[in-house]
Amino acid sequence: MIIRPAVEGDAGRLAEIQNPVIRDTAITFNPRERSETEMRVAVRDRPCFLVAEVGGRVMGFASYDQFRKGPGYARTVEHTIVISEEGRGQGMGRALMDAIVEHARDAGIGSIWAGVSGENPAGVAFHASLGFEEVARLPKVGYKFGRWMDLVLLRKCLDEACQE
Q1: What is the pTM of this model?
Q2: For the segment 25-70, what is each residue's pLDDT rounded down to a tens digit?
Q3: Residue 11 · residue 49 · CB < 8 Å
Q4: Which has the closest alpha carbon to 102: 46, 48, 162?
Q5: CA-only gyration radius of the chain, Å
Q6: 80-86: long-range contacts at Cβ-Cβ below 8 A with a sequence spacing of 24 or more?
């Protein structure tokens, strides 16, 4: 497995990986599939966008962007991680997360956040295993598949000031 920066040419494969998650699961509240163009823009515009590649094929990705807009949030990021169905269970998620956390630390980021669907207990457990702590559960803020869902916010502090 190789972890490398995404390039715009990966955009079609990135959409292929993310769209089944959007279409078929409650892992994300987003109901609209992402186009290749949208993925290309994300690769270009996010400060960190990495892919996991096996045998020359992209099998998953992780990225982060500023948590909220505005200069007061410049040292706080929220990440996205998606692994293709055939790539799951191979340590790819952990490798991608380790890489984006390292990138964030090197960039002077104070904390990295995850917003995980309350209907994704495996995602909450995955983040906990990486040292993320659950800080809040926002009840019924996401809506998909005709039902309201909770959002679990998890944080990993990357510098000492965040941990105080």
Answers
A1: 0.94
A2: 999 999 999 999 999 999 999 999 999 999 999 999 999 999 999 9
A3: no
A4: 48
A5: 15
A6: 82/17, 82/18, 82/21, 83/17, 83/52, 83/59, 84/16, 84/17, 84/59, 84/60, 85/20, 86/59
**For residue 42, which phi and psi values (nearest 5 degrees)?**
-60, -45
161-164: Cβ within 8 A, 24+ apart = 161/110, 162/110, 162/111
Alpha-carbon dihedral angle through residues 18, 88, 56, 35, given to the nearest 10 degrees: 0
Tokens 């982060």 belong to residue: 64
Q: If residue 156 lies in a helix (H) or strand (E), which one and from where to where? A: strand 147-157
- 3-class state of residue 146 by DSSP: coil
What is the average per-residue pLDDT within 65-87? 95
- Measure the CA–CA gap between 128 and 122, rounded to whole angstroms: 10
